Predict the 3D structure of the following.
Amino acid sequence: MRPAFLLLAGVVVFAACRPIEVPPNPLTGTVWELRALVQGGDSLTVDDGLSPDQVRFQPDGGIRIQSCNNCTGLYRMSPRHVVVERLACTRRACPATRLKLDRYVGGRAAYATRGDWLILTVDDDINGIDARLYFAPVIE
């Protein structure tokens, strides 16, 4: 009985040492253009004057935001969230009416891809932001 037990123990140890497969990152290497913002029951689209700011998810885990202020930082993914950290942004004097995309994208947001759309849902109690952002892909 002892050899069978050792063989079984060896199989269990070997199985425990296998690397865990990380799911593919659906955002890596993509560029997205903001098309609509829904916040507090109101919505704003590029047809209404919303600036078509861009977000670029780089393959190395870097993120670039092109808005009134341009930003670079890092992002990481979980199955349902994207977390943007270490944002460094220019400090231009943006018009008060201009959306500051880094305030919405910086931090943790739930994400979903539906058809060709990327949807970020931000629920940030600290900064008082509760919004949904709709992005269309940019084909380069």
Remarks:
- The longest helix spans residues 2-16.
- DSSP finds two helices and nine strands in the chain.
- The mean pLDDT is 85.
